[in-house]
# Entry
Amino acid sequence: MAQCCGVLGSAILTTGDFEQAGAMYEWNVALRQEIGDKDGLVDALGKLGSIAFLQGGFDRATAIYEEVLALNDEIGHKWAKGLTLSELAKVALARGEYEKAATFAKRELALGDDVGDKNSVADSHLNLGKIALARGKYDQSASHAECALRLFWEVGHPSARVEAKCLLGITVLAQGQHNQAAQQLDDTLRLAREMGGQFAIALAVFGLGRVAQVRQDYVQARSLYQEALALQRGSHLRQVVAASLDALACVAAAQSQAGCAERLFGAGAKLYQLISWTHSPFERELHERGIAAARAALGDAEFEAAYAEGQCMTLEQAVEYALANE
# Structure
């Protein structure tokens, strides 16, 4: 019965129905606890942690992963412990707790080196690269991304290679190397399309949207951001939706669509606040530039009114509004 719950939960999770998948995993956890299956309990709790993280429930995700970490220590599963440390690093990064995130990532790196797990070592470099990017330390970010990319290539992990290549592309873009960033992200998109995963494709398309935005090709940027948002609209990934709404708001502001920009800024800010997500310095600069342009065009009163309209939108309404804007 417990195994069936896990299989059903995984199947439901692929549809994006996090609520129903979570219910199945909660049942799975209860069954695993009842029969004393600690290995199965680790897996079921890990899935619940992932669902909480993807929905922006960072407190719940952290609590679950801490419980999993304790179980891994009790069982002696070093490989599984590395995975849990990686998830804790991602949650801390999303919350802007960079020191804590780096501590988890370095623990994963040390553990991976100790057991000779190249996947774990590569993943820790990927996390450390994201942390460095969030801190504005672009040389460090590029170095970690290149290391992760090399190791993921060696172990044959294409989906992780996509993520590492995207990180490298965004990092060199933040360094002002627009052509190199475009080439890196074009290569990433080709790899993602070969894999066929929607999230990987959306990640690469969003990165190319950043390149177009920085190059002030706002028509292309809007098209790419809308494509990325459309690919992920049914996934309930609030982080992806929030970033896309904010990016489209910046583009609208640059195209003198101030009212539209502020509604999207408001909708995006609501999501960012809900999930306690933070902007990297590179993203913050683009965001603040867009806010300033829209405020200057509308004036304070209209700015606040349009912003409030956006904050009143539901997630579905905000996505529809963003995709309808031309």
About this structure: The chain has a mean pLDDT of 87. The chain has 17 helices and no strands.
